[in-house]
Hints:
This protein is mostly helical. The protein has helices at residues 8-27, 38-49, 63-71, 76-102, 109-125, 130-133, 140-143.
Amino acid sequence: MCYRPFNPVTFLFWGLFTHFLFLNILMRSSPAHSRKSYTQEVWHGLLTAIEVKNPTNTAGLSTIDWWLLLRKHLLGAQQKGIDSAVMLVSWKIWKECNARVFNNRELTASQLMQEIFAEGDLWIQAGARKLACIGWPCSSVTSRVPLPG
C-alpha cells in the first residue's frame, strides 16, 4: 500500500467541490412550488442580515457561479468574509441534511440561521475576522463574551 501524506488543502477543496454539487441540487426549487427551497430561505435570511444584495437573474447558475457573482462587487476583505460565510453556511446546511437523514431531526430555516450566526461568532473569535467585515450579526451566545484584543 502506498502512503500518501495528508494534504489538508486538497481535502478541503475536494470536500467543498462535492458539497457544492450537493448544494446545487438543494438550491433548485421545484417547478411545482413557487416558494423558495430550504437552502434558498437560509441564504436569503443570511444575506438580508448581513445586508449583502443577492444577485438577480441567477436562474440556471451553478452554486459556484452564484458565489462568484455574489462576491464580484465586494472589496478584498469583504470577499474573504463572503468566502468564509459560504464555507460556514455550506457546512451547516450539510450537517442539517445529515441530521435529517440520520438523526430524524429537523430545524426550520430560522433555527438553522440562528445556529449559523452563533457558529459564525465562534469563527470570528477563533480568527476568521473577515466575517466581521461583512457585518456578521452577533448572536446572544457570544455577544456576552468579549472578543480578545
